Amino acid sequence: MAALARLMEDGMNRTRRAVTLGLAAAGLSACSGGLPGFGGSESSNGASGGTSMQPVPDSGFDAWLAEFRPRARAAGISEATLDSALDVAGYLPDVIERDRNQTEFTRTLEDYLAIAASDDRVRDGRAALNRHGSTLESIEARYGVEPHVVTAVWGLESNYGTRRGDIPVISAVATLAYDGRRGRFFEQQLIAALRILQNGDVTPEGMTGSWAGAMGHTQFIPTSYLEQAVDFTGNGRRDIWSDDPTDALASAAAYLSGAGWRRGQPWGVEVQLPEGFNTGLTGRSSTRSPGDWAAQGVRDMEGGRVPDHGAASIIIPEGPRGPAFMTFRNFTVITRYNNSENYVIGVGHLSDRLRGGPPIQGSFPPDAQGMSISDRRELQRRLTDAGFDTDGVDGVIGANTESAIRDYQRSAGLAVTGEPSSDLLARLR
To answer: Is 67 contained in some domain?
Structure first.
């Protein structure tokens, strides 16, 4: 969770989370969440499990905390809360390094979906649906958001709770506020995090998350938590951190519901465009009724007319040679959670797969090297078989595959580029 870690200034207003956590991960999100938490051979999320981040002494940070205390008190934070939280807060230089060196992944939709809706993620998501079925049905009854949709958000944000993050949130956001690059935003997050502690929802030790402060199963930043999180269990705490995901799942559903989710309606439908279709009509800003689109020859993947779910847009994320989607209001609702188009399609498509829908049926164009995702998977297989482990075969070229390519190129006396190619694939036969 795509996707991979950026905080946006408009998050200071009402955007639930402005963290595009590294595909999230491989750039998915996420992200997932974005992005978003994505496991897999090429994915690493800021919200991942183990971390080596350790606080180090920093007199400037200590001085900043002393200056911050009066501002926090003026915002209503008690001295007891400040003592319990800030006395154990530490400066985390690795957080600054992450913030300064956010790798910008430009993932195609095909690569994104290869991770966001992988066979493993679909399998694990269906198991999660079965395991938490009664809870998700109760959440649907209250908020009107279907179980497979809530589970898909959970899957992209934290890989169904397996990658919630273990970095102390107070230390992380205090470090970023002190750093000053986006000081105003992170000071706001720090005050919100202190308010959460003051409310008794979690202890300072239990408030963990990503390096940028996104927390729990559904990766809420502190300000969004205050606005959107709910106590669905009724135990007096809005607990999105513990192994029990109930409050986190309900909070995600409450957010989508508040943003206007329409129960029983799709986010979008994969469609076929007729020969000669005017692609100038595509884009989220261009809406027509499904009947109007049908009159222009647009059909679903079985050749039928798409049912009328209200005003609809046609989007072609990979251009005219790639898959096309007719999107509806619920697409826009998901953008309130994360405005990345890939993320929204990832959540929507994963949710469809979780309830038994097929993979994307349209074909994707080859990449810049002229390779298909099948070619890239075969390259990973051949590299691994030759002793240059890519740590998985998903067709997504990330750090592990690039490292394996470089090692192979060195061993073969080739120019060391780390780049995949058809020639390299042929050479590995």
So the answer is: yes
